[in-house]
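Worked example 2:
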Amino acid sequence: MKREIIALILAGGQGSRLESLTKTNAKPAVEFGGKYRIIDFTLSNCSNSSIEVVGVLTQYQPLILHSHIGIGSAWDLDRVNGGVTILPPYTGEKGGSWYSGTADAVLKNINFVERYSPENLLILSGDHIYKMRYLKMLKFHKQKDADVTIAVTKVPIEEASRFGIMNTYEDYRIYEFEEKPKKPKSTLASMGIYIFKWDKLKEVLLEDAQDESSSHDFGKDIIPKMLKKGYRMYAYLFKGYWKDVGTISSYWEASMDLINEDPYSSKEGIDLNLFDKNWKIYSFSFAYPPHYIGPSAEVSNSLIVEGCMVFGTVLNSVLSYGVMVGENAEVKNSITMSDTVIEEGAKVINSIIGPKVVIKRGSVIGNEKRITVIKEGEVVEGIMG
């Protein structure tokens, strides 16, 4: 059972900044890109990178997420020895509790990790949109004989104060970590993707568990502690597309990036292009019929998936499974999730429409100034946004 590397995906966050999109659903399970859910990108990266053992740590509103992942067959992770395993909080002989932080979540699943006696542990987030070769990062990690390797991406200097910033020497060895600095010294922002030597991480996790002042978080506690103790820590510079879709604006921006006429290219050889046959994004598929575009419909620069029926106008938008757009209705610069009905003459502009919404005839949702969000199952009539 011994493995060189296994992965744990942190997928238990509430995602409150996504507002009504996560009221009854975990953030990693939110629909994205028409036929996917956010976690599909991380799971597909694991599959495409030949990471054969993946644990998914869940907590908040996990029903849809658990159902979506199932036994992992969509990502070729339904293995007899390995594959994907759902890891929710549990009660043991001495009781149990919710995960109190990202590091605590990993510590409470130490028995799962130990089953495979890995040399290295890959820690991932389930709510980022990107494509990445994890084995290339592992190669860098081994070449540097690093105890910890942290994936970083360059951000504009004016935005650096929003991130955890890694300050490094020329060889990318980290000498300082600054959490959201007011005056950043570099633009190397942490992506929340880590490779640890498992024996070294295990020591620090057990020690951190005894620290009552700790929040048991990787970014706030574990990384600073390991840096202070002199562990060999390196930054791995990732040059491809990456976005944390933890806010309404970032979710909307990433969705619009999917239909950008000039898709983001990457020196890593992988971009955000969903049509790349060499690095597919896999997902559980529903049994919907082919989409239908009516004879008087107008569709431009949009993603429209199975089960959709379009009789009106769809411009620069993403339509998920089973969306119906009535005659003379208009959807512009918007994301419309599954099984939503936009009735005749209705208009949807700059909006994110949750699943199973009904927008009544002649209603107007959204405007050009800001993003309007409609929660799952709403029946909307009149003018909103």
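The mean pLDDT is 92. The radius of gyration is 22 Å.
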